[in-house]
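tool_call: predict_structure(chain=1)
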Amino acid sequence: MAATICFVRVSLLLVLPLFSVNGLLQRSKISLNNNEYKGILIAITEDVKENVSIVENIKNISNVITENLGQQDIFTGASSALYQATKNRAFFKEITILLPNTWSDDLTSIEATNEIFDAANIILTKHENVGRETPYTNQFGSCGEEAEYIHLTDKFILDSQWTVDTYGDPGKVIVHEWSHLRWGLFNEYATNDNERFYLNERGSVEPTRCSKAVIGKSNDFETGKPCNVYPGRGIRPGKKCRFNPNLKNVATGSYMFMSFLESVVEFCHSDVTGDPLSLHNAMAPNQQNIQCSYRSAWDVMLESEDFKNDNNPARQVTDTTPTFRVVKIAPLRIVLVLDVSGSMSIFRNHSSDNIFSSGNSERERRDALVNLLPTTTGGGTCIGCGLNSGVQVLEKDGLSARGGILILITDGGETDSPFINDVKQSLISKGVCVDTVAFGTSADEKLLSLSEETCGLSFLYNEDVSSTGLSDAFSATITSRIGGSSNTSFELYSEKQAVPSTDTLKGTIVIDSTIGKNTKFFFLWTTSPISVVLYRPNGTAIDDTSLEYKRDDGARTVLIEIAGIAESGTWLYEVTDHQGGQVEISVQSNVREDTQPIRVTTTTSNSLITETPAKTTIYAQVQRGYAPILKADVVATVERPRPHAPVKVNLLDNGAGADFTEDDGVYSGVFLDFVTATCPNCRYNVKVTAVDTDGTAQVPISTFTGGVLPIRPPNGIDENTNITEPVGPFYRVVSGGVIQAPLTIPPGDNFPPSRITDLKVAATSYDNQTVTLAWTAPGNDLDRGTAYEYHLRYSEIFDVFYKDFMNGTELSNSNLTVGNLSSPKTFGEMETMTILMPSKDENITYFFAVRARDAPGNIGPPSNIVSAYCICI
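tool_result:
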């Protein structure tokens, strides 16, 4: 959509309308009031072929009637099932379905307002482009934290009989996934070989399940023969043994175990006076117990904002059918709101360097925008005035402001009314998102909360010579809102470097096989003109004599635009500046047709930190399409208040510490390097790079890789079969937004080692009466460094041990034949310790747990509990 450029100057703010084609976005805000969930957004990707049945089936599968389940529907049925599972405390009331703009207007005549694909709570994609058909939830955080989105495929929606045959009641599938999304629950089925069976206090082998009322048999998944035929001998079944429930069961719990069982209608709970058929099984070594410290699903739910303090008490509702609203993606409208107070005199030079374009018409629009930037500054700052003016631009010609985005750039605190708090509620009610760019460290402290409350993004440009924050902000504002489009643009590279006056700055950029369309290399100098030579992977040079080379001395830029598809491989650049200035380099490229692009999205567990000691977890998800990319190198660079240097945080996908699931494509790391600074509102800028330069990155292509549990593993194969293929070299860079933290950081060591969640029994020796345990070493401060010592305990009574670690008997180095409790390894390394068990006259099940301590005495939480059977003579 072509932009109409206008200039409005109101209360010392500049308002420029920018229009764009359709990362880092917040999800659509879901509310639960009076037991009714509203604000749920389902978005369909552009690669899904237009089909009226998709919309109708999302509402209802009216043509499927099975002998066991009767007539089935999806979200209407899910609403009824949710109402029952939450004991009459919640159901779906309002759901919006967002159609791609490539679909016709036959299904709806309504354009979207503030509905954006990347903010969807539920995403529906084409199943051929995913590599798996199983519904799943994109879950980054810890127990009780809301997840990102539910992922469904068109096959799940359209192939009704297959859905019922594979997963049972589709409405119950949605309830299972909703429990991950809304309440941060984890699965109660086994997710690896160490979790499939466990030993109870009598030494009997039990299959992992919740509740224990679920009955069934254990069979070898290849031969079909029974494999747990002697449960009382304390011998665990082999790796091919699987528990198969009776489909005609009596257990009423739990949704997080096997939602396909017809008898399952609620979650496991811990109330011993409640329904015994859904009583929580704390002993089962599943992820719900491990990640939630043995709390039941219902207990975790009751701690959520939905239900705590008796929020949304039970209410009798006769009709739980949701209302559906179908809308179509509308063109995205963006307005620049620029502070031109006296403190912003530096902005024009910086901003003109960071408004990119290509092609004659776009260059003309860029030049027009640059020319509209203020040449003079002065006066106070009325941020509320500028925001109101931005809304007026969105509402020009009778349009609604809903869905519009304001990019607010300011460097100081507001001085004149109306203030941010005066206009914020109006922005929310009008459905306007506000992206904020804090230009420097003195920008108003309310910018971040303004963005968060209006579903916007927040950025920082700290004016450091190495910072690319401003260009990253402009890029992310556009590119983070095109997730559902095939015309996706990626920022591949973003760096600011010093060019030596006596040498040439050299660097490489990888163009992978999923991109290369409309590729642009931008070089921006700060002081003296530069010369650039770019070499294709085949060695051919592009310089100032080439047609692709465009130089603009007024804008201090060199733009090299590659016609057609840029070759895959490594591109080399050489930059010369005989006066030794700074150059900022940015590379953007679009997705090739009929490919699944490599994407990186990032978020933090807490961006607005108000308590000390301050900490936050940085998450980055690396995917090809919607399949996870494993074994990539992922690093977050955090710019800190000057004069403190940036800090790099390695993000890992190892299932330890801040990372909750190994090899799921979500890379995690804790940032602790906050500083005591003089800035009135200390902000930290986050940028994440994900690369593979040596061919180690892999993508799984196995059929089942998590999600809701099917009635039977597809095609009878092992659901944990780890089949992967190489991704090939790639490079991605994305903005991680802003973290805002307290001014003063308390001195000293304020954090304990992280909790160990992967403790396992590696081996047992009945002859030697030994048990070998293994786990991933925690750090000294959460995931950082090396702990001081381990506390290892065991007990013969599970119930008292899981409630209080101190109820166990402590082991010392004298009890070990291998390992040293006083010499932990560095975070991420594997620990192995072999314990010589005491001699007794009976056979015993021992339960083990471990925790770590640092030198100042900070103690980490107890680990998960594992069991071993000892034939003690």
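agent: The chain has 14 helices and 48 strands. Proceeding to next step.
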